[in-house]
Amino acid sequence: MLLYHAGKLRANFAFDDLNAVLTTSALAAAAGPHRDEPVVLALRSFAAFGSRVLTAEHARELLDRAWTAPHRSRHVVDVCLNGLAFSVPFDGQGDLLRRLAQEAVDSHPDDHMFRFRLATAHHLCADHDEALAHVDAALAMLARQGTFSRELLLEQYLVKRDAIQEARLRAAREAEHEARWRRQDAANADLEQAMHRSSVRAVELVAVFTSAIAFAVGSLQITLSGTLKLRERLWLLTALGAGLAVFALLIIGGTWLITRRRSRR
Q1: DSSP string, 97-149
Q2: Transmembrane stretches, by residue range (predicted)?
């Protein structure tokens, strides 16, 4: 009787009501030690995973007890995977479902439901190609077996396949956009560096031309005016040229040092 009522509540995804029936109801009390049976533990884990009140840690503890039971049945495996698939999202949900569903598929390779749960797990892990392959395998198995609820399951599997396809296309578009943004960022960085180098070269050229003009003007004043001797004028021209050259080198060196520090940052 306990399992009958629990089955109806599970089918309606009434998680909190299911947990109450399995833990605090008169039917649960009448079940006595049978409440530790793997199927009851699996149903309790199903209720805990879907509940907004119970924690994921509590649900996982119940799942572990049901999953590792020595006389675990196929029905227990199905309930455990079902609870994980419809769980309130928690960290590691996809990885846990993928691991357990893979164990179920290895044990029951012709079971389309377990193959479908594995597809759901890969979908949660954003492994879209694997998810698509497994849901297609589940559809093929379902077509060969022809169960009494075939139409309902077929609709469920096809809805999941459409969701996987949509997620796969969305991921491809996002990857393309991300690659485009990376290329644009790289092009912007190259352009910024080119403009930065151009501005540095412009400062250096201005310093050189300024020094050259100053030297030309100063040399004309020295050569065209005054009563200095030729040797004295040559010394003055040499000193003027050397000073202007040092000035230009200081400008160029300072510019290089400033831009080098900025480039490192």
Answers
A1: HHHHHHHHHHH-TT-HHHHHHHHHHHHHTT-HHHHHHHHHHHHHHHHHH--TT
A2: 202-222, 234-258
